[in-house]
């Protein structure tokens, strides 16, 4: 009876947080206490913006939260949660071998110093590129996630999930413009919405950085201008063609090579916005094209799970594959994960078998093939 009353009150608190998000911190504290944890948070990982965010959290030192946002989210095994079903309860050992987890930098440098040993997690919502989840952390004094903690998490998670979804619906109309800007600012590439005369309708944060540098792209009288004359001509022709729709430019647009003053190569990709649902992406009706500008360098694929599904990779194999691209060779990956080089070599060998690659360089090329954020 006591558990029922506690859960009833907690459920009410969860739905109250929908109307007053400032209450989430206190609600998370009560959730952690109910399920037998010491800290917790509502978090998300996004492979497009390449970020890990703790939207609300409790019981975590601000210093460690800053470190998590800056770098440690990349080492957090919670990235494997995208393989779990929505509302499925998963501890750390359900996601990665626990001995391997303990030897990694994430445990040694972020988890252990705070006195934690495990966490119960549940996916609240996921898409091809992002995953939102509830995490309740367990201290060394309380021990590993057990059946009782899983049972209590299962009672709470459905309500947290519904509250999050309801909150998104309520906020949609109120923050539509702000959300649109936030999404565009989360894109690492410079992005410009332009009209047929190259007039800039909107630019994201990375785009403003490019313009402020005044290097290979500039804003002159409100119009986007490339300092290289042939590139500028090609872009203007593309914008004009975009005004006639996908048929004139092609649904995947065109790519124009541009170079910075120091010789660094960049690619400017023009995508038409004048037909279908993409027209709605324009901030104003005058926008006919989106121009994405990024350095000609390897990017981590937007949805890494696509690679996993294509080659039937396990979560650990996918983690090693991405580490080969982002961290380096076998010695560097072994150091980052805190495992023996022989362990990494074993995973790399399996990657060779499943992908048909013969060298680590081939694995990097394979990842590069999934890296374009503009594929329809």
What does this structure look like?
The chain has 376 residues and is of the alpha+beta class. It folds into three domains: 176 residues, Beta-Lactamase (2-Layer Sandwich), CATH 3.30.450.80; 107 residues, Beta-Lactamase, CATH 3.30.450.20; 65 residues, Arc Repressor Mutant, subunit A (Orthogonal Bundle). It is built from 16 helices and twelve strands. A five-stranded antiparallel β-sheet has the order 2-1-5-4-3, sandwiched between helices. Strands 7-6-12-11-10 form a five-stranded antiparallel β-sheet. It starts with a helix and ends in an 8-residue tail after the last helix.
Spatial extent as radius of gyration: 23 Å
- Lateral strand order in the biggest sheet: 2-1-5-4-3
Question: Average pLDDT value?
Answer: 82
Number of domains: 3
Overall form = globular
| SSE series | HHEEHEHHHEEHHEEHEEHHEEEHHHHH
What low-confidence regions span 5 or more consecutive residues with pLDDT below 50? Answer: 172-177, 275-284, 372-376
Q: Return the CATH topology of the largest domain.
A: Beta-Lactamase
Please bin the fraction of helical residues.
40-55%
Query: What is the CATH class of the largest domain?
Result: Alpha Beta
Number of helices: 16
What keywords describe this structure?
Beta-Lactamase, alpha+beta, five-stranded antiparallel beta sheet, Arc Repressor Mutant, subunit A, 376 residues, 46% helix, 12 strands, single chain
